[in-house]
From TrEMBL:
PANTHER family: N-(5'-PHOSPHORIBOSYL)ANTHRANILATE ISOMERASE. This is N-(5'-phosphoribosyl)anthranilate isomerase. It comes from Gymnodinialimonas phycosphaerae. SUPFAM superfamilies: Ribulose-phoshate binding barrel (SSF51366). Gene3D superfamilies: Aldolase class I.
Amino acid sequence: MSDVSIKYCGLSRPQDVVAAAEAGARYVGFVFFPKSPRNVTVAQARALALEVPLGIAKVALVVNADDATLDEIVENVPLDMLQLHGSESPARVAEIRARYGLPVMKAIGVAEAADLAAIDTYAEVADQLLIDTKKPKDADRPGGNGLSFDWGLLAGRKYWTVPWMLAGGLTQDNVAEAVRITGAKQVDLSSAIESAPGVKDAGLMHAFAQAVRA
Ligand SMILES: O=C(O)c1ccccc1NCC(=O)[C@H](O)[C@H](O)COP(=O)(O)O
């Protein structure tokens, strides 16, 4: 699995950036969602982004953000990608992509086969897709819940017209199986690299990276 790229999401402290870089992350994500334990302010994200070494993509995660919110983030935080993790329509994805001139990754929630149709739809307007577990009805956030979905739904459907990441409940113990079943070349996670909600753990980041490289 040494050719699998890792995105560590929900970093909120300088030491998280250092640990992610040392673990070999290809992407790091900053969450702009006030209800999340990983939420960062624009000022925090700016300070963190300025510490990210060259070669690691800095991703801002937003949920149904309006233009004013996005303007403030994009004007202040040096970014390489926007991750749209809400119910943004294909038209809104295209609009955001054109407005900011940044690559856009659209999250697609999957719980059953019928959810896969959205992958083809959004592949036409996004630069990347993040295929994640669909938000459970009782969850207060649409991602980062540490829950996986039936990876078998993606088996045999490895190729879309844009790059994609697998997310949702990935851990050092299950990532090999998830990659084997889905053929993912990129993986994204948050909960399994935390010692407490919102608190990233350097040891867990390294252990996950080792499991990916094994
Ligand atoms: O992480 C959050 O708190 C969050 C809040 C609102 C929307 C999305 C959020 N996270 C999305 C991510 O990119 C996660 O890394 C992805 O859903 C996987 O999370 P996990 O299952 O915890 O590994």
